[in-house]
Write a structure and sequence with these properties.
By secondary structure, this protein is an alpha+beta fold. The protein is about 45% helix and about 15% strand. The chain has a two-stranded antiparallel ribbon with strand order 1-2. A two-stranded antiparallel ribbon has the order 3-4.
Length: about 100
C-alpha cells in the first residue's frame, strides 16, 4: 500500500481510502470521464480488494460506493453502445439496408 490517500466524494464520513499501488483511480477522477474499459478495470480491482478483506470497514464502504457508481457507469456505456449497433439486412428486392440490432 502506498502512502497516497484517496479522499473526496466516495469517502464515507471523510474516511480516506488508501491507494493500492495506484490500482484505484483517485476520487478526483470523475467516473463520467472514464472509458468503459478504465471503469471496468477499476471496478474489478475494487472487487478484488473487497474480496480479499484487507481493508477496514469504513474503507470497504467507501470502496463499495465507488464500485457501485462504476458499475452503473459501465452499464450506461453498454446500453449506449447497444443503441448504436445496427445490422445489415437484405430486403426482398436484394437491396441492403441497416436496422437496429436486437440485442438482449
Amino acid at each position: 500500500m502506498t502512502g497516497e490517500m484517496i479522499t473526496g466524494r466516495f469517502a464515507v464520513m471523510n474516511v480516506p481510502i488508501p491507494a493500492n499501488d495506484g490500482d484505484i483511480m483517485p476520487a478526483a477522477q470523475k467516473i463520467d470521464d472514464l472509458s468503459f474499459e478504465a471503469a471496468l478495470t477499476e471496478l474489478e480491482k475494487i472487487v478484488q480488494r473487497l474480496e480479499n478483506g484487507d481493508v477496514e470497514l469504513e474503507q470497504s464502504i467507501a470502496l463499495y460506493e465507488r464500485g457501485a457508481a462504476l458499475k452503473e457507469h459501465c452499464e450506461s456505456k453498454l446500453k449506449d453502445a447497444k443503441l448504436k449497433i445496427e445490422k445489415i439486412v437484405l430486403g426482398a428486392d436484394g437491396t441492403a439496408r441497416t436496422e437496429p440490432a436486437k440485442i438482449s
